[in-house]
Prior knowledge:
single chain; mainly alpha; 9 helices; rod-shaped; disordered C terminus
Amino acid sequence: MLAAIAAATWYGWQSGALRLILPINVAAPLLSPASQPSQAVAAVVANAAATNAALTSAAAKLSALEQRLAELNQQAAAASGQASHAEALLVAFAARRAIERGQPLGYLEAQLRVRFGDGQPNAVNQVIAAAQRPMTVPILSEQLGRLEPQLIGGSANEGGWEWLNRQMGELFVIRRDSTASPAPESRIQRAREAISGGRITAAIAEVERMPGKDAAADWLARARELVVTQRALDQLESASLSFPLTPQIVAPVPTPQPSAPAKAQ
Length: 265
């Protein structure tokens, strides 16, 4: 029986009556050779698009970082300028305080030359010279009190005729009610009040109109020097607020964007 079955099977295989049918997976068809190049081109284009997008994003981030860096540089320059203003103003205030107290400048002398020597040389020299010959408002007031009898009584070289004419001229004075009294006693009182209020120029004007003004020649010279020194200090304080200038911000040059590659046809 086995021999008969084997013989029948061999005969059927040779004659074609017996065929072997194998199962084929229809879910995964084989790619044809013509479709493989088009898919490779599509993959290259997709990779190029992804690379271009990454470059564009990196360029945008770089531009933002450059802009932020420029803003930080401007802020740093502004902070440096503000610090310079503050330091210069402190030096000017300290110099004024030393002058008003009649104290030597000390280290402030070098600071004045460094910070204001180029822009305000005359003011710096005046303040330094005034510190070497101190004169304060209390000293002026005290010296004026000692000169009061001579200022009211007239000049030491005044003769009898000049004294008589001055006395006769002061007997009757016609003036408006709103006009200050020209009497020496009134002038000396107004001069003292002007000095107490820091109005040295007004005090000088009153002393210059008094009969004994020749006796106050040295006082007038020192008072005028104090006025010049105060103006020099005002110049230094004004200069401390006017420099250095804050630099203008410069926008960074935008980075050129990479161009997209041509799409393959």
